[in-house]
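Worked problem 6 (solution included).
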Amino acid sequence: MADNTSQRNDLRLTGSIQYKFNNHISADVKYQYESQSSISRNIYDQQSYTARNLINLYTQTGNGLVTYGIPKGGIIDISNDYLISQSGRGQLNYANNWNAKHDIIVIAGGEIRQSLSTSNNSRAYGYSDDILTHGEVNYVDDLQTYDNLAGSSKIIDPADFSEGVFTFYFLLYKCRLYIPKALLCFGKCKKRRL
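Solution. The predicted structure is:
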């Protein structure tokens, strides 16, 4: 039997401020913070196919002795993932209308984002959920597989830790539009990512 549980938490906070300097010029500032965490735990008890297959694969018999490369018991996989992200955006807006015939709209602004994600994963063999113990495994040496079915190989150490992945970007943009009464739109926009 397998016992799989997972828990995910997500927090997102946003805020914005808009200020009007006059009838034509305004400014917007927006901010977002996000935090995510995910924890999962998968247990394969000794009777599960996953545990039995690995235990049997690395079992050696000879001279009346049975040697287990992977200890008898269950297998537990644990995964923890975390993300923290922040973003901010500022924009200046200009809009003007002359004689109800001509509109000019100009915007300029910038956006900045950063995020940091970390994760770690681990696996323990010979796990007992009743007394919360696990066995020792030789991850260094090549081990013979049962009846040499797969030759000899190392048991892959499933411990994996990611120190963190940091991403960052900065974006500047501006856009100018002229809209005459005929509703034809002429404009030019630029965006530059730094």
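Discussion: Helices lie at 49-57.
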